[in-house]
Design brief:
The strands form two sheets. The protein has a six-stranded mixed β-sheet with strand order 1-3-6-5-7-8, covered by helices on one side. The longest helix is centred in the middle third of the chain and has 15 residues. It is an alpha/beta fold and 178 residues long. It has a single domain, classed as 60s Ribosomal Protein L30, Chain: A, CATH 3.30.1330. The radius of gyration is 15 Å and the shape is globular. Strand 5 and strand 6 form a beta hairpin. It catalyses: L-glutaminyl-[protein] + H2O = L-glutamyl-[protein] + NH4(+). It is an enzyme of class 3 (hydrolase). Probably deamidates glutamine residues to glutamate on methyl-accepting chemotaxis receptors (MCPs), playing an important role in chemotaxis. GO terms for molecular function: protein-glutamine glutaminase activity. Belongs to the CheD family.
């Protein structure tokens, strides 16, 4: 596996796993992922109508690791640079963030650290965060329509029981919790 794992979402469902990101500019494109303590950031440029989602494990890792896209700062830069390559402008980017759950009470604080990291990163980079669903104790299935900037999530108690389905018709809200 390479350190950069960009997928192209083009008119169908594209699933991303930890350390991956996907970019799309087609209205029919849907990017999805399943999160526990990991965080997914959905970024889009409403003028260029291009967007993308990443999925990272921890805010930062040891410099010796080869899978750098699994760590927050690298995952954010890879997604931003990928969007710019596809016509987005950094100053127009908008964000929605998901994940950061405490999946195993008292075992690790990774979810909280991920949530704190992503909000701090967005503030530092002057990228407005239009919606967030961080924390809690349940896994999430997140779907993002990158050309439209719309996201939705489903909280699940057992992520292994999730069955992928077609997205429901367009809603009036940009952030739908179902």
């Amino acid at each position: 596996m390479t350190t950069i794992s960009e997928k192209r979402a083009s008119g169908s469902r594209t699933y991303i796993a930890q350390g991956e990101y996907a970019i799309g500019d087609c209205e029919a494109a849907v990017i999805s992922t399943i999160l526990g303590s990991c965080v997914a950031t959905c970024l889009w440029d409403p003028v260029a109508r291009v967007g993308g989602m990443n999925h990272f494990l921890l805010p930062e890792g040891p410099p010796s690791r080869s899978d750098v896209s699994s760590f927050g700062a690298n995952a954010m830069e890879l997604l931003i640079n990928g969007l710019i390559r596809h016509g987005a402008r950094r100053e127009r980017l908008r964000a929605k963030v998901f994940g950061g759950a405490e999946m195993y009470k008292g075992l690790t604080n990774a979810g909280n650290q991920n949530g704190t990291f992503v909000l701090s990163y967005l503030e530092r980079e002057n990228i407005p965060c239009d919606g967030q669903s961080l924390g809690g104790a349940q896994a999430r299935r997140v779907e993002f329509m990158p050309a439209l900037g719309k996201a939705r999530q489903k909280l699940v108690s057992d992520a292994s029981q999730i069955v992928e389905k077609r997205p429901t018709p367009e809603r009036t809200s940009d952030l739908e919790l179902f």
